[in-house]
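Troubleshooting: if your tokenizer reports a length mismatch, compare your output against this known-good record of 466 residues.
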Amino acid sequence: MKTMQEDSSPPWLPQLARQGGPRFLQIADALQAAVAGGALQPGERLPPQRHLAAQLGVDLTTVTRAYDEARRRHLLEGRGARGTYVAAPKVELAPILDLSMNTPPPPDGVDFGDLLRQGLAQVLMRADAPLLMTYHLGGGSDADRQAGAHWLAPMFGPLEAAQVLVCPGAQAAIAALILALTEPGDVILAEPASYPGLRTAATQFGRRIVAVDADHHGMLPQPLEQACRAHQPKLVYLNPTLQNPTAITMPEPRRQEIARIAQRCQVRIVEDDPYWLLAEAPPPPIATWAPAQVIYISTLSKCLTPGLRVAFVRIPDPQERERFLVALRSFALMVAPLTAALATQWILDGSAQGLMAGVRQEARLRHRMARDVLAGRYSGAGDGLHVWLELPGYWSSAQLAQAAGREGIAVTPAQAFATGDPGRASVNAIRISLGSTQDRGRLKAGLQRLSDLLARRPEPFSLAVV
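Known-good structure output:
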């Protein structure tokens, strides 16, 4: 390791100019130029700050600020009492392209920082700050429930705010409903490929999921009714709009038939509907035709941002609402008051609707991109956040997910969505999420790599021995 002699002038020493801008920046710029040009090498020790200040004829504060700025640029590193050294070059490891998480894509022209600043400023101006930092009763404040009713109005029209509860995300709502409405050992019916969070919660609570056959329109009515007679389930779980993972939207006649079966069999439906507001002209929710049988969940995580952790649950029956809140309190006392207040502010001032319109537009643009790149393999709905891609017979979904991972791309294999044995899947497919990467160019390049991967057969397995 080279060491710079403290009693000699370093060769990179800048000539400070009166009109050259702040002196600390002139020093930092000289350091950067010396590192780029090779005059300073990684691991080389710099002069102590007092020594350099004396050589340059500046005060110590100027040199301290220059070193701080150089550290901010990743040029220098401090080693305690041993001094300050030229840092090794920063290695940029290409991050994995995550196409496995269903998150809203960043819309053009929306500055999240500005949106947050404005929203929080309004919240703090209108609310008592200490109240935002203390415990609240579960289910949301009156204002939060009013905002929830407003959010659900496109699905149901005017709603009583009392029917709407506010939860810390849809997963918490699903778990609380399982606790409130079922007992250990009870059966929950779902489609063969369904939201993995359902299986996670049911397994943890000792409930059993039974898969009901589905087709290209969603869960089949006749097998549903047969399963209701055979298993006496307490819940039926459905995600009928842009279903996760298949992207199927259940048509209106099928929804009506499902609602009639729920009424005949006196079974509760949990209608988890996170993508309804992103869909192009979706049918009315199943809850429209069987309001007493259906509990409806709408989360902001898929339309706005997961960071809010706010979902709205419509439960018409007052006794069921209370049971739900008791169950929710056992593991999630409340929504964080600050994020709930921010969500309410955005909904009531129109910011949420503007953000959602941008998300919807960006999602559709990305679907068009996927359709172009994946060509004949694309089978998406043209909206929503994901594509369900059925694979050629020479690829299994697990193989393809592993091969994509080696290419630096994360996708989700069909096994992750199997409601029965997680090692088996009803179809050989992967889910591709289109929103989780911010850069549209990176997304297109990743989709092209996936398309190229699908076009060739998997390589023979080889065992690495070390």
